[in-house]
Amino acid sequence: MSYELDGKTIETTANGYLVEPQDWSEGLAEIIAAEEDVALTERHWDLINYLRSEYLENNGNQPNTRNLQKAMKEKWGEKVDAKALYILFPKDPSKQGGRIAGVPESRRKGGY
């Protein structure tokens, strides 16, 4: 699969993750989100930016849903449960959110 943006073809893996994370842009995030039937809001962008920041600035860290809850609780100043994150990204906040955020597919195992 691939995406077309500004005359450039951007390749993805079989699971829809970018082959080259540096190809990511906000415009591409909008395209990927639309393909996944996700209308991006400010809260979506908070989570996307957090996922990107963790990956790019924290040694490739890819937080799971539990850690995303903690981070968004701090960011939004309110209790955040998993359901709130799944409302934003129904196919798994860390996986679907990561795909839209342009980070590689997480290889972490389940559990906490």
Written account of the structure:
The chain has 112 residues and is mainly alpha-helical. It has one domain. Helix content is 48%, strand content 7%. The chain contains five helices and two strands, in the order E-E-H-H-H-H-H. It has helices spanning 26-35, 42-57, 65-76, 82-88, 93-101, and strands at residues 2-5, 8-11. The protein has a two-stranded antiparallel ribbon with strand order 1-2. Strand 1 (2-5) and strand 2 form a beta hairpin. Helix 2 (42-57) packs across helix 5. The longest helix is centred in the middle third of the chain and has 16 residues, at 42-57. The radius of gyration is 13 Å and the shape is globular. The chain starts with a strand and ends in an 11-residue tail after the last helix.
Kindly list the characteristics that best describe this protein:
112 residues; mainly alpha; two-stranded antiparallel sheet; globular
